[in-house]
UniProtKB/TrEMBL annotation:
Belongs to the PPR family. P subfamily. This is OLC1v1003517C1. NCBIfam families: PPR (TIGR00756). InterPro entries: PPR_rpt, Smr_dom_sf, TPR-like_helical_dom_sf. It comes from the Eukaryota. It comes from Oldenlandia corymbosa var. corymbosa. The lineage of its organism: Eukaryota, Viridiplantae, Streptophyta, Embryophyta, Tracheophyta. The keyword Repeat applies. Keywords: Repeat. PPR repeats lie at residues 182-217.
Length: 457
C-alpha cells in the first residue's frame, strides 16, 4: 500500500458544510418519509450505490458524516439519518467497483460510530484499519491516528480524542519517526485538544514535545499557535490569545488574524476588533472573505437589519447613520477607501469587457456591505470623476453580480444572498436583472448602470 497523504490542512478546526447532491437528497427524503422496515431502506441504499457515480455516493456519505445540524438540513422536518452511515459505507466498500480504501473516510465513519454509541462497530472498523495499514508502518499509522483525532474532535468526543492522542504519543515516542511525521502528529494532537476546549493541555503538550521526542529541531508551528489562538478566543481568554499571537511574531497573517477576530466577535468585543483591524493594516495583513464574515457577523445591529430586508439601508451613508459608534467604527475600518487591504479587488473581476462582482463565500452580512461598498466606489469613480472633469473611466459593456444558486445553503436551492439583493435592487430601482441564462446572477449593461448612478447621485 502506498503512503497515505496528509497535510495540516486536513486537520480542520471548523467542520465543513457538505452540500448534498440532488440524487442524494432524493434518497434521504425517500428514507426519511418512509414507514417501511430497515430492509427496505437497505435495498434503497444498495440501489443508490449501484446506480450512482463515485462523486454522488461519496457526497451523500460525507453529508451524513457531517454534524447532525447539517446532516438533517436536507430533509426538512425529517428524522436524524446518521444511522445510515454504516450501512451506506459498507455497501460502498463491498459493491462499488470504483472504491479504494481511504484512511480519512474510515476515520470519519469510526467517529460517527462512537458518536452513535456503537462502540463495537467503531472498534471493529478501527482494528480492521490498523490491520490493513500494518502495525509496523509507523508513517501511515500515524496518519490514520491524526485523521481519527480530527474526526472525533469534530464531534466533540472528548474521551475518544484523548484515547487517540495517547495511542499516537506512544507510537511516535516508541518509534524513530522522521521530524516531518512527528511534527504533523503534534499538529494534530494540539488541534484536537483545542477543538474539544482544552487549550491549556494543548499548550502544555506543544511545549513538552521537544522533551517527548528528544528533537530540539521540533519547534511549535504556526498551525499550533493558530489552533491555540482560536481555542483560547472561544473561551474568552484574551490574555492567552494575545500572548500566543505575540509569540508567533513574524507568523502573524490573515488566517491567524481572522481567528482572533472570530474570537473577539464571539464575545462582542467590537472596540478590540477595531484595534485588531488597525493592526492588520499597519502590518499589511490583507483582508479576506473570512475577515469580512467574522467581523460583520459580530455586528448585532447589522444582523438584526438583515432579518427585515424591506427596511434595510440602501447606501453606506444610510447604514452608518443607523449603527452605534462601535459598529460604525468596525465597518469604517473594513471599507476604508484609502486602504489597499480592502477586499474589493478580490471580489471584482474584469474579463474582457465584462465587470463581475463575485459574492461566492460571503455570508449575508458581508454580501450586504460589499454590495453597498461596490456601488459607492463605482459612484465615486464615475460620478465624481465627471464632476471633477477627469478623463472618463472605462465603462464595461456588461456588469454581472454573482450570488449563487444556493447549492450550499441550509435549504438547497434557496440563496439568501440572492433574496437579499433582489429586495435591495427593487427598492433601489437598480437596472440589475436576474440573468435568464444563469439565475444565480444579476446582469445589466454597463452604460445603463452608469446612467443609473448618475441619475441617483
Amino acid at each position: 500500500m502506498g503512503s497515505l497523504q496528509y497535510s495540516t490542512n486536513a486537520t480542520r478546526i471548523t467542520p465543513p458544510f457538505c452540500g448534498l447532491s440532488k440524487q442524494g437528497q432524493r434518497l434521504l427524503t425517500s428514507i426519511a418519509t418512509s414507514t417501511a422496515a430497515k430492509d427496505h431502506h437497505h435495498r434503497l441504499l444498495r440501489k443508490f450505490v449501484k446506480s450512482s457515480s463515485k462523486h454522488v455516493a461519496l457526497n451523500t456519505l460525507s453529508h451524513l458524516l457531517s454534524p447532525p445540524t447539517t446532516a438533517s438540513a436536507a430533509v426538512a422536518g425529517g428524522p436524524h439519518l446518521s444511522s445510515l452511515v454504516l450501512p451506506l459505507y459498507l455497501m460502498i466498500t463491498e459493491e462499488a467497483s470504483w472504491f479504494s480504501w481511504n484512511a480519512k473516510l474510515v476515520a470519519d465513519v469510526i467517529a460517527a460510530m462512537y458518536k452513535q454509541h456503537k462502540f463495537s462497530d467503531a472498534e471493529r472498523l478501527m482494528d480492521e484499519a490498523i490491520a490493513k495499514i500494518g502495525s509496523q508502518n509507523t508513517r501511515d499509522l500515524c496518519t490514520f491516528y491524526c485523521y481519527l483525532i480530527d474526526s472525533t474532535a469534530k464531534h466533540q468526543l472528548k474521551q475518544e480524542v484523548l484515547s487517540c492522542i495517547t495511542l499516537l504519543r506512544e507510537l511516535i515516542i516508541a518509534s524513530s519517526s522522521s521530524i516531518h511525521v512527528q511534527k504533523r502528529a503534534y499538529d494534530s494532537m494540539v488541534a484536537g485538544l483545542c477543538e474539544i476546549g482544552m487549550p491549556r493541555e494543548a499548550e502544555d503538550l506543544m511545549r513538552g514535545m521537544m522533551i517527548d521526542t528528544g528533537l530540539k529541531k521540533l519547534k511549535p508551528s504556526s498551525f499550533m499557535y493558530r489552533s491555540l489562538v482560536y481555542a483560547y478566543g472561544r473561551l474568552g481568554l484574551f490574555e492567552d490569545v494575545k500572548r500566543n499571537v505575540d509569540e508567533m511574531g513574524g507568523e502573524l497573517d490573515t488566517v491567524c488574524s481572522n481567528m482572533v477576530l472570530s474570537a473577539l466577535g464571539a464575545y462582542n468585543d467590537l472596540p478590540e476588533m477595531v484595534s485588531r483591524l488597525k493592526r492588520m493594516k499597519v502590518s499589511k495583513v490583507p483582508f479576506s472573505v473570512r475577515t469580512y464574515n467574522s467581523v460583520l457577523n459580530s455586528c448585532p445591529t447589522i444582523m438584526s437589519m438583515l432579518e427585515v430586508p424591506e427596511r434595510i439601508p440602501l447606501s453606506i451613508g444610510e447604514l452608518m447613520e443607523k449603527l452605534g459608534s462601535d459598529e460604525a467604527n468596525v465597518v469604517k475600518e473594513l471599507i476604508d477607501p484609502s486602504s489597499s487591504l480592502t477586499m474589493m479587488d478580490g471580489v471584482i473581476e474584469w474579463k474582457g469587457n465584462e465587470m463581475k462582482l463575485d459574492l461566492h463565500g460571503l455570508h449575508l452580512s458581508s454580501s450586504f456591505v460589499i454590495f453597498l461598498q461596490w456601488i459607492e466606489e463605482l459612484r465615486q469613480r464615475w460620478v465624481r470623476g465627471r464632476e471633477m472633469g477627469e478623463p472618463e473611466v472605462v465603462v464595461p459593456v456588461e456588469i454581472t453580480v454573482v450570488c449563487g444558486l444556493g447549492k450550499n445553503s441550509v435549504i438547497r436551492g434557496v440563496s439568501p444572498v440572492k433574496g437579499l439583493l433582489k429586495e435591495m435592487i427593487i427598492r433601489m430601482k437598480c437596472p440589475l436583472k436576474i440573468d435568464r441564462k444563469n439565475i444565480g446572477c444579476f446582469v445589466t449593461k454597463g452604460k445603463v448602470f452608469r446612467d443609473w448612478l448618475f441619475a441617483t447621485h
